[in-house]
Amino acid sequence: MQKRWVVKPKNDIYKINSLGEELGISATLSNILIHRNIETFDEARQFFRPTLDDLHDPFLMKDMDKAIYRIETAIGNKEKILIYGDYDVDGTTAVATVYSFFRNFHSGMDFYIPDRYEEGYGISKQGIDFAHANGFTLIIALDCGIKEIENIQYAKEKNIDFIIGDHHLPGSSIPDAYAVLDPKRSDCNYPYNELSGCGIGFKLVQAFILKNDLEMTDAYQYLDLVAVSIASDIVPITGENRILAHFGLKKLNSNPNCGLQTLVDLSTNKNSHFGINDILFQIGPRINAAGRIDHAKNSVQLLISKSLQESESIAKKIDQQNSTRKEVDLKITEEALALLDSNSLEQHKKSTVLFKEDWHKGVIGIVASRLTDKYYRPTIILTETNGHIAGSARSVLGYDIYEALTECSDLLDQFGGHKYAAGLTMKRENVELFQLKFEEIVSNSIPPELLQQELLIDQELNLAEIDAKFFRILNQLEPFGPSNEKPLFQAKNLSLYGPARIVGKNHLKLSVVQEGSKRFDCIAFGLADELENLSNHANFEICFSIEENIWKENHNLQLNIKAIRY
Predict the structure, then answer these.
(1) Which domain, by its residues, includes 363?
(2) What angle is formed at CA 302 by the lines to CA 231 and CA 415, rounded to 5 degrees?
(3) What is the pLDDT of residues 83-97, one digit of tens each?
(4) String of b and e for 236-254 (b: at least 16 CB within 10 Å)?
(5) What are the UniProt keywords, alphabetically (predicted)?
(6) Which of 198, 227, 217, 228 is nearest to 97 (CA)?
(7) Model's pTM, two decimal places?
(8) What is the pLDDT of residue 1?
(9) Residue 215 in 3-state DSSP?
């Protein structure tokens, strides 16, 4: 599929030169910073030199004072406290963070993760019944709960208080819980509203420490878990998340908790520096696998383990479950692709909604992501579980799938999530009606350009500008992620230096030169089809990022080509 090249408008030349002079950097690097809303020396200092002192006061979050008061009361009265969380990476890391911290102060603690298949997403009546039967009078719900109006009322009838710590968009009303922590509440004035669910849990821990004059290092020991949640839940890496991710990655690479250490040891690049992408593709899928194939409580048990011996046995089991997940995921993806390819009408739609009753509920989100990547349109994968239809939705850049689901709410039992990812349930008889209505809504609301994958390019770059210093400063923009993507560049009038060749299944290795530049080695993943075109054109242009290729003792700069034009 051809990608749409979009070059960001160049910033005001006065601003570029002024910031460049203050920082002693090139105009190109200055322009990149301004694209990221960094326009002054102080903003650049905060960006390049994040400090934990710049974390916001947790008591700026609405209901935080009430939450801490209720927890202190529960500890003082020796009440039993249940930490409840979603079964994904964000939920399990949030539960591990809050449970691990408060068990140091209170013996009456336990945690609860709902069964993906028996209970589904969010706070379940089954979970509340478990709490009631076992004498819990306070439940702290993390990464879920913001739309649980009925179930919170059900808990109140059983004399169970709830503290909700969520980061999803609220519905039209807020649950009647004892405290509701969610920066996306319209009446919450917290300065940053893009925290992960685990980030909310961390702020709760931070608030308890401040209130009780404890050492803040007691909270910082959980930053590796927060970084894992930030990467895996794909929240923006800006503001407070950038600080948390920066220091969380430092801890992950120096002194991670026992559970994360064993997952790092099981990864394919265990001897490398772990970054956001390594979490996304190595650690996150393993943590998720437990909940997809078996039960996510195993992931929490791994993340709260206090010894490598204990964590290693759990991690090996989870790693095996991840292998099973890959097999199931591949099988269902192939079936979904076959369904699309066999139906000519599907080729012309603006959305994809597929249903098969025996698809494994644990991997439909992954399959939805794969189909979105391939066909680049909003995608929903549905399956049947316990007599209900459950679905996972994924969107393309710029299109709000949560809003589209809101317009279909008359056909849904439940739905929740974000702009780009959501979960939903419905009755079997509504599936065909939903497919038709969702396609109608998407067709009428999505601009045509959003159905072509966008390459958002920072600026055109002459290869002669690229040297070790340029790359070193560029690399200080890490950690990269949503809203702080790795810079993409455009280079024109290039020619091959020697022949290009196919490597692996579908990749290209080549070297390029530009007038006035040295030779640069390049890798082009998934672009083997361009081999003939490259051979037939004397000049071409590329969209690329810059990376370091490390082989044995050799460190060389390499261009990672995302697309080629002639």
Answers:
(1) 343-451
(2) 50
(3) 999 999 999 999 999
(4) bbbbbbbbbbbbbbebbbe
(5) Exonuclease, Hydrolase, Nuclease
(6) 198
(7) 0.91
(8) 72
(9) coil
